[in-house]
Specification:
Radius of gyration: 11 Å
Number of strands: 5
Shape: globular
Structural class: mainly beta
Helix content: under 10%
Oligomer: single chain
Distance between the termini: 18 Å
Largest sheet: 5 strands, antiparallel
Strand content: 35-45%
Length: 52
């Protein structure tokens, strides 16, 4: 997966199937990802800094 980040902390990733994922991180460190097909995935940071 190839990823790029901009100066606002937004991430854009493209997987090997050609799907594009847009990721944003909130002030708590949680991530929200959306792909170009309308799928959503959330990443939540635990107290150790790991993301699920």
């Amino acid at each position: 997966m190839r990823c790029n980040s901009d100066s606002f902390g937004n991430k854009t990733c493209q997987d090997n199937k050609g799907n594009t994922w847009l990721g944003r991180t909130d002030t708590s460190g949680n991530e929200t990802w959306r792909d170009n097909k309308g799928n959503t995935m959330n990443g939540i940071a635990d107290s150790f800094g790991n993301k699920v």
